[in-house]
Amino acid sequence: MPSQIQDILTLEQRSGLPEDLRYLVAKYPRDSWEAHPNVHGMARMWLQRHDMFRELGGILTGSIADYREGRSTATEFAQFFAPRLNYFLGHLDGHHNVEDQHYFPVFARVETGLKRGFDILDSDHHLIHDALERNAGTANAFIQALAGDDDAQRFAADAYANENERLVAMLARHLDDEEDLIIPLILEKGDRELGGY
Asked: Which CATH number fits the domain that encloses residue 106?
């Protein structure tokens, strides 16, 4: 793939999926999903899981803002933040592994016109995994800095806030694009044809 085209498709550069991959979402726009009989089962699970990731990302972003703006102490922040970050990072990584190993290959075989879309989503997962590792590293540095002086705490808080903001933005773009590719496919084909349980 030429680098210019690849750059357009890169997660942090794109504003959505390319038009040639949007034929099913044009047939099944977002505002019609809830009324479709195939929204239950696999589609509902997908949407709920993605909503959970969006909510947790917002909670983490809010908690770092509360700490930075003095609405929580270092101890309160650490006790609240650490278990939620671990849950978020672990579940997001697990969710992506299941998609890459099981769902995306099945979906690409069933709807070959979307194979490039699943390749894009798989590429996203690698970028998000790298961002998760950076996020965990800066979060750990931040939590360790809570025992240090005010300047060390502020510097570490800023570094983590920047990394978290980047991750949440990447995740928001990816979740929207994934839903635009997958939910219409599930509505079109149904759980049984796609290997849903």
From this structure: 1.20.120
Q: Determine the structural domain holding residue 89 and report its residue range.
A: 20-189
| Token code pair at residue 51 | 């909503």
The number of C-alpha atoms within 13 Å of 122 and in the hemisphere containing its C-beta is 15
- Write out the two tokens for 162: 């920047």
> Binning pLDDT at 50, 70 and 90, where does residue 158 land?
confident
Q: What is the pTM of this model?
A: 0.87
Three-class secondary structure of residue 147 per DSSP: coil
Per the structure, the count of domains in the chain is 1
Contact, 129 vs 96, CB < 8 A? Answer: yes
CA distances from 103 to 62, 97, 108, 111, 140 (A): 32, 10, 9, 12, 32
Two tokens at 75?
């101890």
Token pair for 100 = 């890459």
Type of residue numbered 154: R
With respect to residue 89, please indicate whether it lies within any of the assigned structural domains: yes
Residue 28 belongs to a domain:
yes
Encode pLDDT of 131-149 as tens digits: 989 988 998 898 889 888 8
Question: Cα angle at 28 between 26 and 29, to 5 degrees?
Answer: 70
